[in-house]
Every structure is written in C-alpha cells, then in structure tokens.
Amino acid sequence: MNWMACELHTHTFHSDGSQSLEELAAGAKALGFDCIALTDHNTMSGLWNKQTVENQTGISIIQGMEWTTFFGHMVTLGVKDYIDWRPVGPGDIHAGLTRVHEQGAIAGMAHPFRTGSPMCTGCFWEFEIDDWSDLDYIEVWSTTFAPLKNNNARAFRLWTDKLNEGFRIAATSGRDWHRQEQTDEPLSVTYLLMEDHEGSITDKAVAALSAGRASVTLGPRLDLRVTSGGELYGIGDAIPRETTPDHMIELQAAADFEARKEHWELPEQIFALRFQSNLGMVSELPFAAGSKGCNLTLSREGLRWVRAELWGTIRGIRTMIAFTNPIYFD
Fold this sequence. Notes:
By secondary structure, the protein is of the alpha+beta class. Helix content is 16%, strand content 36%. The chain has a 15-stranded mixed β-sheet that branches. A four-stranded antiparallel β-sheet has the order 11-10-13-16, with no helix packed on it.
C-alpha cells in the first residue's frame, strides 16, 4: 500500500475551466500532488490526451466526470463512458447512481451546501436520497482554506450524521480547480492509500475510496490504526466483534509532518489530537510535531466508528487541520 496525494475535483476548458489538461497537471506537480482526477462538467472529452500528459508530467490522472444537474453536482470517478444527466429529476437520483455503479465507478456529493441558483446553478444539493448506502462519498471540504467555510462545516456535519446512522460513507476534499492562479490560502489534500500492484491509477483510486482508505489535510498526513485482539486495523477497515473478547482496543494516531512539507506552513505549536466517534469525542490529547504519535486504550462497547482529527492554529485561526476517514466496528 502507498499513500498518494490527490486532488479529486478539477476542470479544464473542456467544461468551464480556463486551463488545458497539460497546464492542470503541471500545476498539480508544482504543488506536490501525485495524482489528479479530471472531473469536467458532463463531459469526458478533456481526457483525450491523458496518457501523453501523464508521460510528460509524471502526474497520474484519474478518469472522472462531474455529473452536473439543476438539482445537484455529483463527482464520479472511474466512469468509462459518458452518462447523460438529463433523464434524472430530483426524486430519482438513484437511477443516476445505478448507471455510475454499473460502470464499476463511484459517485460522491460535490459541495452539497454551496450557494445554488442563480450564483451557481445546481451547486446546492436538492436530490432526495432514499438509501444513503448508494452514495460512495461526500466532498466535505471544498475550495481553499476549506475548514473555515460554513458550507463545508454543514457538509462535515452531514457526513458525521450519516456515520452515526450506520452508513459507511467516505469523505474527501476537492479544490474545484478551474484555472492556474496563485493563492496564498491553504490547500487541502486527499491522501488515498492505494494498492501497489499492476493496474490503472483510476482503478486503484476507486478501490481505495470505495474502501474508505482516505485522509484529508491542510498540512501533515494524519493516520489512524486500531489494535484489537492482537490484530492491527487501518483506516477504512471494519473490526469484527469476535476479535475483541475482552472488549478493549488500542487507538494509535500519528501524523507525517514530512509529507509535502515544502507546500504548507504551520506555526510551531502543540496541536490537539481528537478521537471522535459515534459516542462523541472519546479523548483529546496534546500532540507535538515530530512525536511518534498518540496511543489510547478504551472499550469498544457502543462504538460504531472512530476517526482522528488534528486541531491547531493556522494563519492565526484555530481550526481542524486534518482528519482521517473512520475505522468501523462490526
């Protein structure tokens, strides 16, 4: 398994962006990304020279499309053929999700609480979801300096609510990158833990996100593991009950402050590492850059899921800096 730094929401001039795929990939490389997903609105034509751009820049490109409607935007990853958005209305989003899944692809809500019409047609999610297990992920951090945006806070709460209801939905970030322009605002990164074997980057990314192997950050990459019954489990794993006859587990969180370190900046400080769960926050521990991590032993009774969050100060504002996707409990 290898962690790869990904930007999962981008556009070129094949939809409403003002950059070519070559410019997009070169910009991503300059920012220390390993791969990007091209998710133009209702078109896949921008992928025509994907292989050439990958060879020229060294950036891996995930095949995708932003399924863009009047009732919501949905980022799809792994689609092989164009999927028409027009037959789907606000009450039958599951028909669209079915067509995505029939191609072996996955779908996620894009910026679900961003201002909609007339500012951004369809950006605010209005589709009625009858079965949340049909949805693969939610883009909970959108655009730059994401944790400060109120619409992202709402998306993050929605994700947490669905985890509490028992749905195993992943969470990602997405810049919604349309043009090559300089910004001094912090950029979020979605790290995907991908299998190290032969196969396309698209297939590996789809497999990683389907399994919930994702960690999101403005800076250091945050990791979480659980030891239960002598076995070690990672982000996205589900821990069987029979592995913990004494009901006790050990949480182990660590942060890699070397990951893309030249592309972000945090003041020297003592961070707060929070273990969040369906039972609320189970612990908050001080965490220093360069430390080996934090361990916590507790009972698994009542736990459905647990994730790690790194809190601290960035640009003079105290906020969440990073979070992992959950580890689950059967």
